[in-house]
Each structure stands twice: as C-alpha cells, then as structure tokens.
Amino acid sequence: MKTSEIRQKFLDYFAGKGHEVVASSSLVPHGDPTLMFTNAGMVPFKHVFLGNESRPYVTATSSQKCVRAGGKHNDLENVGHTARHHTFFEMLGNFSFGDYFKHDAIRYAWEFLTIEMKLDPNLLFVTVFEEDDEAYDIWTKEIGIPVDKIARIGAKDNFWSMGDTGPCGPCSEIFFDHGADVWGGPPGTPEEDGDRFVEIWNLVFMQYNRNEEGELTPLPKPSVDTGMGLERITAVMQGVHNNYDIDLFKNLIAAACRETGIQFGDNAEQDVSLRVLADHLRSVAFLLADGVLPSNEGRGFVLRRILRRACRHGRLLGNEEAFIYKLVDALVTEMGSHFVELREAQANIEQVIRIEEERFIKTLDKGLKLVEQAAAEAGEGGVIPGKTLFTLYDTFGFPTDLTADILKGTNIGLDMDGFEICMQEQRTRARAAWGGSGEASLPKALFELREKHGPTEFLGYTTINAEGVIT
Ligand code: ATP
Ligand code: MG
Ligand code: MG
Ligand code: MG
C-alpha cells in the first residue's frame, strides 16, 4: 500500500464511523499568534474543544500537515538521526467533540490497526497514564491486551494539556515493535529512545479542565483527540524500519540522487544528507505553499534556517550550484494531487528556493572555512566565541543552529551569550544609524518645503486627549 492509499484508508475508515472528513488546515495557525506552526491534528479544532466555536459535526477525521521545527515541539535536531522524525509530516487523526470517549477511541484504533491494516496484535505495545485505571481496564479486559504488553507511564509522556490552564487529560500511546534486530526498548525502559518500539498513535482523552490554581475538574463533555504519524504507519505497513525508506521518501531521495550524482546506500553519512534533503524539501515547499516567506525573524526565519541547513547538506554531497529547487517537481508528483496548494504554487516555490539557494551559496564556502578555522582554534572542549558566531551569521548568513549542526558530534561549544551581546550591539547601531540617515536622505522637495514653511510641529501630545479626541 502506498502512502497516499494509507491516508485514504484512514479517512475512509473514520468516515464509515460517521466522522466528518475535514481537509488539512494551513501550516500557519489561524488566529493563534502563540503557536509558530500547526504541529498536531487538533490545532485547527482547538476552539471547538474549548467550546468557543461550534461546528455542524461532533466527530471529525483529518490528515493534517504538521511542522515541528520550532517552539514547544522541535524535531529539527532529530532529523537524519532517528528513523521516525521529520520536520514536516502528516498527522492522521480522529476527534470527538463531546461525543464518544475512551471506549470507542480505543476500540476504533485497535480495529483500524488489527483488522483494517491487518497488523499482528503481538507486535503492538500500549501505554496508559499511570493513574488511568479506566483505560488500563479497557485495554486489558475489553481488547484483551496481555499485561506484559501494556505499561503505566508518568505524566511527562502520558498526560496532555493544551496549555497551563484549560482542557487536559491522560493519553494512551500505541507502539509498534520493529523487531529485535532494531536497537531500542519499550517505553519506560532506559533504551526507549531507540527505534525498535516506535510510537505510532497517541490517543488523548480530554477529561479535565485545569484552572489558574492548577486544580482539575471533570469536563462536562469529555473529548477525544488522536494523532498517528502517516509516515510511521506507512513504514510499518511497507515492512521497513525507517520512515525514510517508504515509497514517498524513496522517490524524493531518488530525485536528490539524480541531482547530486550520489548513490543511496554507498555511504552512511551521505545517506543522512540525502534524508535530510528529502525532509527539509517538504518543510520548505509546504511552508512556502502556505504563504510563509524567508525572512530574518519569526516563521520566515525558521523556513530560511531549514533551507540553509539543506543547502549545506547539498554542499556536503558535492553540489556547488543551486539544485534543491529542482527537487520540487518530484515532491509535487508525490503529494501534489492530495495537496493542491503545492501544485498550484509550484512555480513560485521553485523560484523562491532558487533565489535563496543562489544567495546563500555565494557565502557558504567561506562560512564553512571560517567554522573550520574557528573549530581548530577552539579545539576539543573549547568554545567558538560569540563574535565569530556573529560574523558567521551577519556576514556569511549562517544562523547559529547551522553552525551548531556542523559541529554536532564534536566537543566544541558555542558562546551563545556572546553572540546575543553582538546581536544587541548591532540592533543599537542600526537604531542610531536610522535616526541620522532618515534626516539626511529626506528628498529634496521636502527640504524645500521646510525652507519655505518652516518645520512642522507635532501637536498630537498636547491637542489630543487620552480618549483620542482633538481638543
Ligand atoms: P515521539 O515520542 O516519537 O517524538 P510524540 O509523542 O512527540 O512522538 P505526539 O505529539 O504524540 O508525538 O504526536 C502524535 C503522533 O504523531 C505520534 O504518535 C507519531 O506517530 C507522530 N509524530 C510525532 N512527531 C513526529 C515527527 N517529528 N515526525 C513524524 N511523525 C511524528
Ligand atoms: Mg516528539
Ligand atoms: Mg512520545
Ligand atoms: Mg505521543
């Protein structure tokens, strides 16, 4: 089954259970300035859960575009290093807004995995929140999960909250065992960070409201929010142990191989670069399709940083010229029929990526040399001075996370405090420069007006009162 078929199967299954099929929302969350990017399937439904917004349905299903590359959830550093993390991924979800609760949520998930997807129940492993006896009993007594395949886990991983206050509740996570030849252990063991037991589905039971004092009171209408990574379930279904080996990624990596002349599988480090390229291509292209543009702050800066990291991996693979923009076509082939915004914006996406690449390539080699020099000077256990980090950023366009990424695996630190001081100094300089040059660059006609009529006097402070009324 191809990735796109699995997405469809999921949506069809829940549509068959009466869920409204809802199209993915934008990666830029609407009306939520606190959130950098949409990072879970529930984000577009946040106000429905909070009871501020009503919809003509009480249950829904979606495959939501997500980016986890900034803010609370940041998987950027994991990409290329784990088998299961992307910066951009799709989260399949089913939602109940005060309709069904734990019984059905668990039953649907189990039925979808073991009957629809025909997964071997022996390869599934479950966790519940340590105090959630109700979920534990449903799994063990109704579903019949053996007690050695279920674990009670603490609040860090198994208690979810929307924020410091508001809806919250216990989770139950479903893991797939990729087999003893993959390193890792089940949740709750010291080896849980491995890729053997991979979390495929997270069921959140919104059961309480937390007030300012931190007290929990039961919600009158408990709700359900679930999330399953499309790429993770696809890896399971395609019998591969790494998300980057599924059909969709294989085709993106093949495109990257064509453009770089590298063979996948020849060299482990190059394979990492190819995977990172495929991952970052998706984030960059989908963010552009949703209207984010490269910039030096906010969302646009995250986009720029991801793209620059990708450029560096292209350089590691030997490419001296812009080429990432040429991979967009392969992405549109893979995902453009489901996500029409990608197809519609293709030409723009390619153009912006190309301009960004061409600009950055001009300073990339010099910047890399400076990092190399600075690393040699610092030596193992040493620190790259803030001033150098600032030069890398300001002159060569190296965001500090790119420098950190290059130095990953070494024992060399970054003087981030020193960097911040340099940034602050630059801001102060910029402000000072602005005051002076504004005056000096006044167009001639304005100077003439001033000569003729004298300077205007700003009266707003004295003639407008606190209510904004002219007195
Ligand atoms: P993990 O512990 O593996 O990092 P998570 O607990 O952070 O996952 P959730 O926030 O519970 O993930 O998201 C729900 C589901 O979305 C996960 O069970 C997983 O299948 C998928 N998912 C989460 N993060 C990623 C990612 N970076 N790349 C791909 N899939 C992801
Ligand atoms: Mg995570
Ligand atoms: Mg987890
Ligand atoms: Mg989880």
TrEMBL record:
Cofactor note: Binds 1 zinc ion per subunit.
Organism, as annotated: Mariprofundus aestuarium
Protein name, entry field: Alanine--tRNA ligase
Keyword list, A-Z: Aminoacyl-tRNA synthetase, ATP-binding, Cytoplasm, Ligase, Metal-binding, Nucleotide-binding, Protein biosynthesis, RNA-binding, tRNA-binding, Zinc
Catalytic activity: tRNA(Ala) + L-alanine + ATP = L-alanyl-tRNA(Ala) + AMP + diphosphate
Enzyme Commission number(s) of this protein: 6.1.1.7
Function text: Catalyzes the attachment of alanine to tRNA(Ala) in a two-step reaction: alanine is first activated by ATP to form Ala-AMP and then transferred to the acceptor end of tRNA(Ala). Also edits incorrectly charged Ser-tRNA(Ala) and Gly-tRNA(Ala) via its editing domain.
Gene coding for it: alaS
One Gene Ontology molecular-function label: zinc ion binding
